[in-house]
């Protein structure tokens, strides 16, 4: 036994009663001591939505613990960005109205409807039953919807050095997030941006966690003559033609789809005439 250990042992052996009394006093004092250390605060943000005359209230989830960057399009619109699996992604939907050479991207509401191929953008339809009309429904929150021909036009819609993802890029993203059956939850933003099939806003526990930071929001879709299912669907264009054995269908392209009622991400082929959301990526190889 060391010198210090032996000395301590002799003193405590001589005064066991004193030692026990001091120990009890210290313990009780520590139990009653008030700490001046700052306590963490939890900020709860309550949102109210009105759908079919019913008011729904729910709490926003906190921002994901992700290191965001920024990038700007040719109009100066700024977008959050993040890196997942070796690619840098926009964390917001594209909302640009001009190609990179300065030409205006036509909108179907005012443009020549005989453009061939049809290169148009549309605003998300916030008047549809699913989602109702809300003050916080803005182009800044949801972006615009583009036909495939506009999104992939050679004049470019993505910021300089960025491009439209391929189907392989989206699949790599999904694989990084654990696979198609659970990636949707990690990609979807909080409940205020989604509704279920009946149009009811989703509570946080029933919507996305957005742990990836991808921040998918239900901007809906524009197919045929109208837009519908805003806040229930989010569909993202790829630059990849839809393929099926034994040939390629050049009139359709792959889209990746998330929806308010589930946790999965689904790949499918959709007509290039339809208008969906667009994300851009930057490659580092």
Structural notes for this entry:
By secondary structure, the chain is an alpha+beta fold. It has two domains: 3-32; 46-282, no CATH class. The chain contains six helices and 15 strands. The protein has a four-stranded antiparallel beta sheet. Strands 6-7-8-14 form a four-stranded mixed beta sheet. A three-stranded antiparallel beta sheet has the order 11-12-13, with no helix packed on it. A hairpin with a 5-residue loop joins strand 3 and strand 4. The longest helix is centred in the N-terminal third of the chain and has 17 residues, at 16-32. The chain is globular, with a radius of gyration of 27 Å.
What structural keywords apply?
single chain, 285 residues, alpha+beta, 2 domains, 19% helix, disordered N terminus
Oligomer: single chain
Net shape:
globular
- Number of helical runs? 6
Give start-end ranges of low-pLDDT stretches.
Answer: 1-59, 127-136
What is the topological layout?
Layout: H1 3-14, H2 16-32, E1 46-51, E2 54-59, E3 69-72, E4 78-84, E5 87-90, E6 106-107, E7 120-122, H3 139-142, E8 145-147, H4 148-151, H5 167-176, H6 180-187, E9 221-223, E10 226-228, E11 233-244, E12 247-259, E13 266-271, E14 275-276, E15 281-282
Parallel strand pairs: 6-7
Antiparallel strand pairs: 1-2, 3-4, 4-5, 5-15, 7-8, 8-14, 9-10, 11-12, 12-13
Question: How would you concisely characterize the structure shown here?
Answer:
The chain has 2 domains: 3-32; 46-282, no CATH class.
């Amino acid at each position: 036994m060391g010198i210090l250990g032996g000395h301590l042992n002799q003193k405590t052996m001589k005064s066991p009663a004193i030692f026990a009394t001091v120990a009890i006093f210290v313990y009780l004092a520590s139990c009653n001591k008030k700490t001046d250390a700052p306590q963490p605060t939890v900020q709860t943000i309550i949102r109210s939505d009105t759908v079919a005359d019913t008011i729904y209230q729910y709490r926003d989830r906190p921002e994901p613990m992700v290191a965001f960057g920024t990038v700007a399009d040719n109009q100066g619109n700024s977008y959050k960005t993040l890196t997942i699996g070796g690619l840098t992604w926009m964390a917001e939907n594209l909302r640009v109205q001009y190609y990179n050479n300065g030409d205006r991207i036509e909108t179907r509401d005012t443009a020549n409807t005989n453009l061939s191929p049809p290169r148009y953008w549309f605003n998300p339809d916030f008047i549809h039953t699913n989602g109702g009309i809300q003050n916080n429904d803005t182009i800044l929150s949801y972006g615009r919807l583009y036909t495939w021909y506009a999104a992939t036009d050679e004049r470019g819609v993505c910021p300089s050095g960025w491009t439209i993802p391929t189907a392989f890029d989206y699949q790599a993203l999904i694989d990084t997030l654990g696979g198609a059956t659970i990636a949707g939850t990690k990609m979807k933003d909080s409940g205020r941006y989604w509704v279920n099939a009946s149009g009811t806003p989703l509570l946080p526990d029933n919507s996305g966690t957005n742990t990836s930071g991808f921040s998918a929001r239900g901007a809906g879709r524009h197919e045929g003559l109208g837009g519908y299912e805003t806040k229930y669907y989010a569909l993202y264009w790829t630059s990849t033609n839809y393929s099926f054995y034994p040939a390629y269908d050049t009139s359709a392209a792959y889209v990746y789809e998330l929806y308010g009622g589930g946790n999965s991400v689904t790949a499918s082929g959709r007509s290039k005439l339809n208008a969906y959301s667009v994300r851009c990526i930057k490659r580092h190889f």
